[in-house]
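Cross-check.
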Amino acid sequence: MLQALRVRDFRLLWTARSIAALGTGLLDVAIPAHVYAVTGSVLATGLTLAFRHLPALLLGPFAGVIADRWDRPRIMITTDLMHAMAISAALLARTPETIWLIYAASLGQGTAAAIFRPAAQAHTPAVVGVGPLLSAANALSAFTTGVVGLSAPPIGGLLFATSGINVVIGAAIAASLLSATAVARTTTRSRAHDPAQKVLADLVQGLRHLRQAAATRALLATNSVYLLANAALTALLMPFGVTHLGGSVQVGYLLSALGLGFLLGAPISRRLVDRFSARTIISLSQALVAGAFFLMFNASSLPVALTAAVFLGVPGVTVLVAIHTWLQRATPKELLGRVSAAFVTVEAAASMVGAFAGPAMSELISLPLALNAACAFTLLSALLTLCLMPRGSQILQGTEGRRSPELGGDGGPALTDSAQSE
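Predicted model, tokenized:
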């Protein structure tokens, strides 16, 4: 997993993405807490999250076009600066009348993230190649995501409680500027094609690839079911913890156990992804996630639930690493931004639907039945992956200059590792 850090440009890219994620994570608790402190409104607080996720849903396909048209490091630098400018507007939101500035900041933050993610994901193979270093890079990124996801929100909340919102926003702005600086120091450039082509033609070309690439198209569909079920289960986690495990403190224990499993699973996932076919490893991991969720939500004691949460993290991170690695190896480089953006858009849509569907289902049929129904949907995603993805869909490196038969239905060009270690 750490082998990818031998490549100078990946070290800088990984540093940039880690710092950017840290800056964003600091705001996850602090901004909603600030809005609630100013307005006293639960609805106003919830709107901050809605505005943050809305751009990914609306701008996803266009973000992919941008990632495939222009130099991707420059896109990342620009969006880092955009992020810093957007969240600085939140410094002026001090009264209920000016809280709209928070919504504008959240909208700008979400827009920057929606453009940054496809560019960063599409640029990674240009830096480390598509051989073993790619799976190592993705596993390390997943590991870092777990660490940041565990640490940044509580740190942001603590800073808000002790020093106020200005300090948190200042730290997030500094993180964005440091991320832009790290990306600016890289030397690898990647622009997929001439930007003179029309935007609509680019979109059509990306959609045509998804229609023709059987394995990627199947994975997009099955992953949407998986993400919808996960979002529903996540939305029901707090009510479950309060009613069945004793309170919000126990929910914190569950999240920590899940993060531990995520960290343990990251190095394991790299070996699994390079060893088994995409169809096998993704469907099996999704099925194990469903089983772990079922065990956790039907646990009779907290230790059993915590054990299930740790176990859940391992296949959970494997699904993430396997899908990213598949896309980066199986998709032609000139289309990778648009294909990545399609997955980001579907992720946003499925997450928003699941976040509403889970609580709504619990009101209709009871919380335990809603939890088990969502577990069944997670298992359904595994069955769909097994049925829809072509046999022999591998996540393996190919050879330079020819289409690899190991890429199953997509047949995208596979390149050998071209990254140079220092």
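The chain has two domains: 1-188, 204-411. The chain has a mean pLDDT of 80. Passed to J.P. for a second look.
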